[in-house]
Each structure stands twice: as C-alpha cells, then as structure tokens.
Amino acid sequence: MPVEHDVRRSGVEKWNPEESWGGESGAVAPRRNRELSSRGALAITRPMDQDGSETVLSSVGSLASEVVGTAVSVDTSSVGGNTICDGFGSFASEQPARAEKAGTSRATAVNSHAEPRRRGPYACTVSTPKIVSFYVFAPLPDPEAIRLWQYAVCDALGLRGRIIVSGHGINVTVGGELGPVKRYVTTTRSYPAFAKLTPTWSTGTGDDFPRLSVRTRAEVVTFGVPDEVTVDADGVVGTGTRLSPRELHELVTERGDDVVFLDGRNQVEAQIGHFAGAVTTGAATTRDFVPILDSGALDHLKGRPVVTYCTGGVRCEVLSALMRSRGFGEVYQLDGGIAAYGAEYGDDGLWSGSMYVFDKRMSVDFSDHTELVGRCSECGRATNLVANYPDELGRELAVICDGCLKGLEREHPDTPFASAVSDPR
Ligand SMILES: [Zn+2]
C-alpha cells in the first residue's frame, strides 16, 4: 500500500524539481527570475520605494556569462542596501564598484528619483540544498573528455560530490544549491548519450561532500570484471528484468515466498536496512561479488525468482547481468533501487531500516517510524548509525551506537571516528 509521508523526514523525494517550480522551490526561484536567468538578460523591475516607484536593475554581465551552458552564480551582495536572490545567484544594483570588480557592466538605476530612499538590507536566508544521483550505461568512446567536461561544469556551478566515468557510462552523485544542480542536470543531458538520464533528488544539507571528485575508471562500478560487461546504446547487455516498486509488489503477490531478495550492497549497508528476508552476501566491497558468485555460495537460488537491489540501482545493472551469465535463470533488478522504493512505499512495505548513503549523511530514513534493524558492533544495542571506524580489526565503516562511539572518541581523541555520522537517536 502506498503511503503518504513527510518528505522532509525522508531523505528521498518523489517531488521532482525539474517538473515543478511550486512548493518548496517556488519561494526561492520565482518563474520570472528563472526566465530572466535562462535567457541571460537580467533586467528586473521591482518596487524600490514605498511610493511604488520602480528601479530597473540592468544587465549584470557576469551573471549572464555562459560557462558550458550554465550561468555562473555570484555571492549574495548587499547593494545600495538591497539584495535580491533568485535561487541561481544574486542580482545587484547601485554598486558600480563591486559590479565592475566582478567584470560586470555598470548597474544603472533609471527611476525618477535621484536619491532613492535607502532601506536596510534583507538577507537572502533561503537555501535549498539538493543532492542529485543518476547513472547512465552507454558506450563512451572518450571517457577522459567526459571527465574534463563534467569537472568543468560542476566546478563552475560550485557543486561537490563524486562522478565516475568509464567507457561503459557514468555514475553521479553531486550536491549543491537547487538552481546550480538543476543546471548541471540540464547541461549533462545535452550530451546525446546522457539525454535520457533519470535523476533521483534528495534533500541535502549544503555540506554533504568534502570535495568534487571526477574520475575515470575501468568500470562504472568496480566489480573487477570490466571485460565481462558489455554495454550498448540500451545499457548493459543481458541485465536482469527491471521492476518498478509496484511491479515488485505484484511479483511478490503472485509468487509469494518463492521470490528471494539478494542485497547487492556491502555488508555494512545491509546491516542497517534491507528487504524482508533478503539474502546478504557479507561482501566487504563490490569486488567481492564475482568470487562469491563463482564460489557457488548462491547456487541454491538458481531455480528461484531473484530480485537484486542496491541503493539507486547502478550496481544491480551489472550484478544481475553477471548472475544471468552464470546460470541464474530468473533475475530481476529493482529499478531505481531502494531510493525509488522508499520514496513510494516508505517504511510501510517490504523494506525495513535505514538506507546507507555515500555522503556525510551516512544514512537516510523513509519515514518517522523507521525500524532500527542495525546492531552496534561493540555492545549489540539497536542502532542505525554507521561511523568511520578504523580500528585494530581494519574496519573502515561499522555499525556503532552513539554511546559506544562517544566512548571511543574519548579513548582515542585523535581518531576521526565520527566525522560523518548522521543524527544520533
Ligand atoms: Zn554500542
């Protein structure tokens, strides 16, 4: 049963900012300003004085400059006592020195008053940090060129996050302000191979990634078998049948307990959240999956309908193909991954627990009644916290409760255990 839930609590949203300027973003980026920005003309008319006279803010060149098809935003400026933000950048008037310093044309006040009445600055306090994720499997003849292009776009827009480019496609998770992130998506879509990318949006904090990392790799996701994966214009060749969250429920209704979930993620991810009755492999990294498959450890599933799932679906594109080529006869993959499922069913379907994510949030919950399915690796208490935990056992990430984490921090004050832990509870 689909349920309504508060997307502000959920890390992942059904709301798609590309389709709407109402609601959350509407207050930040009115359509008028968006249109002005998109055509690079930045004349804005707004009342300046209580008598209703208007000042026209004329073209600000740097805001209109195109960097790989994107407008560069500038810092919020308090100009002549007035600041306007439109979600893309700030529009400044009556401060020629600053405008010229920024390489812009002189802003011109053309109202009828020689000395417009000044009023105090009002700060642009509305921030809409967003994280967008997507992947595309498609042949990319020149991954290095794509890498340079993607870096330039993200750098110009002030985005941070991780992008992997390979000859097989691209995998992206980046965050920043809503406007720049949208522009990044639009710009990326301009490359024909990426035209049909399907972004997943979630609410960020504005400081979710330590840096921008854009790298080329042999594989989009590192299973360690680049030569075994074939990609054409339709994606990975021989991949498992995609199921939407609704189709997944239909399959389970139809086939019952015969359906088996296979967690395509690493062990620590599965420890804080998983599908009902899922088979988890204990993999420490994605590289472990091929040896596990080749060991025969999962061969007992070969006669059953197997649904693989991962965070956003990218790992299952490859994993399901590797399984099919190894004799698993009926392999499905959850399209859009746990993120898509959680956005539709929250914690009222077949999923339990928190979803691990690869940014500073560490995990996201889909409702206000998320079950604590993780167990602290130190004391066994129920928790869904995951921490950086480089201990004597060589673990890099571990499920650990807030109390044990604080104790470890007191014992080892120089060790950055919890630099990225999500809210304790
Ligand atoms: Zn503990």
Automatic annotation (TrEMBL):
Keywords: Oxidoreductase, tRNA processing. GO terms for biological process: tRNA modification. Its EC number is 1.14.-.-. This is tRNA uridine(34) hydroxylase. It comes from Gordonia soli NBRC 108243. One of its GO terms (molecular function) is oxidoreductase activity, acting on paired donors, with incorporation or reduction of molecular oxygen. It holds the Pfam family Rhodanese_C. Catalyzes oxygen-dependent 5-hydroxyuridine (ho5U) modification at position 34 in tRNAs. It is an enzyme of class 1 (oxidoreductase). Gene3D superfamilies: 3.30.70.100, Rhodanese-like domain (3.40.250.10). NCBIfam families: PRK00142.1-2. It comes from the Bacteria. InterPro entries: Rhodanese-like_dom, Rhodanese-like_dom_sf, Rhodanese_C, TrhO, TRHO_N. It catalyses: uridine(34) in tRNA + AH2 + O2 = 5-hydroxyuridine(34) in tRNA + A + H2O. Residues 1-40 are annotated as: Disordered. PANTHER family: THIOSULFATE SULFURTRANSFERASE/RHODANESE-LIKE DOMAIN-CONTAINING PROTEIN 2 (PTHR43268), THIOSULFATE SULFURTRANSFERASE_RHODANESE-LIKE DOMAIN-CONTAINING PROTEIN 2 (PTHR43268:SF6). Belongs to the TrhO family. Residues 255-350 form the Rhodanese domain. Residues 1-17 have a biased composition (Basic and acidic residues). The gene is trhO.
